[in-house]
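Possible regression after last week's pipeline update?

I re-ran a chain I had predicted before the update to compare outputs. Posting the input and the new output here so someone can diff against the archived version. Not blocking, just want to make sure nothing changed silently.
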Amino acid sequence: MANKKSAIKAIKQSKKRRLRNKSTESRIKTFRKKVWLAIENGDKEAAEKNLFITIKEMDKAVSKGIWNRNEAARKKSRLMKRFNSKFLLGEESKNSTQQIEA
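New output (post-update):
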């Protein structure tokens, strides 16, 4: 246990920051799971809505110093890649097959 007043204060501050960071991490993780589920179920509207909320939360975490910007960029890229492969690339292949048949 800390004996000095400044050390005691530092412990309190650290605990407060840890709890705040943990809630932000949890919030991001929850939205990422919602995006994954929506993508797996083929629900484009829900996936898109939650995707942009997730990206916004990740950017906030970077600006507050909770996440490293490269970590956020990597995770955003992976989410977008998954979203695009399911919805955008799927639509392009459908359109190309319709054009071939016509």
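Follow-up from reviewer: compared with the archived run. The longest helix spans residues 5-41. Marking as no regression found.
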